[in-house]
Amino acid sequence: MAPLSRSSVEIESERHSTSSGIQQSSASSKSKKLKLIHLIFLIYFEVSGGPFGEEPAVQKGGPLVALLGFIIFPFVWSIPEALLTAELATAYPDNGGYVVWATAAFGPFWGFLMGWWKWLNGVIGNAAYPALCLDYLKIIFPAFGHGSIRMVGILVYTLASSYLNFMGLTIVGWTAVTLGLVSLIPFYIMFFFSIPKLKPSRWGARPKGSVDWTTFFWNLNFWDSVSTLAGEVEHPQRTFPRALLCAGLLTCVGYIVPLLAATGALELKKESWSNGYLAEAAGEIAGAWLKYWIEVGAVLSTVGLFEAQMSSTSFQLLGMAKIGLLPACMAKRSTYNTPLLGFLVSAGATLVLSYLKFETIVKAANFVYSCGMLLEFASFLRLRRKFPELSRPYRVPVGIHVLTVICAMPMAFLIFVMAQNRLVIYVLGFSVTVVGILAYLLMNVCKKRNWMEFAVTEVSRLQSLPENQTEAKTESNGSV
């Protein structure tokens, strides 16, 4: 019996040690929460990363259409998506974001499908940034354009950027702030130098062409991506609405200012307005030094885009594990308080996809992302009806009927964008969705047969109004 007694003492000691470790970890994680400035620039990189890529809007429609597009389109798409994110991220300040919202609104099946759609789109999109960075670098160093040097470059970029991400969200947050300022400041300098050369009549030029809706859409999208980090934000109920407002202004002004400078100070040459032309325009307006600064900023911007997206995808998997949609092991954290397996899975998928030429796959991923956004807007409206008493620290100040009209505009635009695809995209999108459904069924089998450990209480909790809010409502009615 002596050895048995000693073993129980050791076990009790381990429990106390574990409890102490958890408390220390909790205190440490509180000190590493994302602050307002971090969240602003993480949202900025989720959505934009700078005006790089806005040039096709001028090439296709001219200065007037491009300027009006970046002024008007935020009211059609960006503001409704940002309002949705502000309300639901403060009502459900948990990691997982839109997965949590869909689960609360429609149940675990739709929550899992939302997670699958959004995660797949995230890692495929992230896989494009190493190649994009090398495309910028090959202008200066042609060797990065092909062969083994390019392959090694993609590997080094992905591993180095992933390791930086793994080291903690506060490091990622300050990296985003630094990279954001370095990539944005030269465009404001360009505008300053352009003032003596501006001719406002040039802004009204409307040559023959078409409206490039997709440029506006993809350059003013993904406001909800940072919601998967809600559990890592300091005072999320206050921070999220403020961060979304500041990031929105930073993004929209960041698109419009260089357009005003380049189109107002230089003669319009539509054929020149391809990706990368803003750097050439800066060189003509202020000199070669500003051109090189913008080109360096474009390279650094890809790092910011990669870091923000990697954080979202890895913490999304952690959030899905916390509500029982993925095995509990996916919620395990590293010593840096980052998702351990969630990071490895997201980084591994990104690295593999970085070596593929997958234009059609990207379009299919964008298609299922649009399906996810339709589900997200539906979840928003459903939660307003299902849980009208849910505590919403930030609440869009309109009733359900007006809210439906507000959501109808972006939902109609999503359907319009999806309708432009070819048949092969529909087939791929459907196939990807089937894979997601099979994965959900597999998770259920693992859960029922106890093959893996899952969180068992969180999904049922999301399906009902939290007890503390129900009690508060009852007490309020009783006092009346």
Question: What can you tell me about this protein's structure?
Answer:
The protein is an all-alpha fold and 480 residues long. The chain has a single domain (33-472), classed as Amino acid/polyamine transporter I (Up-down Bundle). Helices cover 74% and strands 0% of the residues. The chain contains 17 helices and no strands. The protein has helices at 2-31, 36-47, 55-91, 98-106, 108-137, 147-166, 169-194, 213-219, 236-265, 277-286, 288-322, 340-354, 359-386, 400-419, 423-448, 458-462, 467-479. Helix 5 crosses helix 15 and helix 7 runs antiparallel to helix 11 (288-322). The chain is globular, with a radius of gyration of 24 Å. Mean pLDDT is 87; it is low at 1-29 and 470-480.
What's this model, at a glance?
It is built from 17 helices and no strands.
What is the number of helical segments per DSSP (H or I, 4+ residues)?
17
Average pLDDT reading: 87
Residue share in helix:
over 70%
CATH architecture: Up-down Bundle
Give the full name of the CATH homologous superfamily.
Answer: Amino acid/polyamine transporter I
Beta-strand portion reads under 5%
* CATH class category label: Mainly Alpha
Largest sheet: none
CA-to-CA gap between the ends?
A: 62 Å
Shape: globular
Q: Which helices and strands, and how do they pair?
A:
Elements: H1 2-31, H2 36-47, H3 55-91, H4 98-106, H5 108-137, H6 147-166, H7 169-194, H8 213-219, H9 236-265, H10 277-286, H11 288-322, H12 340-354, H13 359-386, H14 400-419, H15 423-448, H16 458-462, H17 467-479
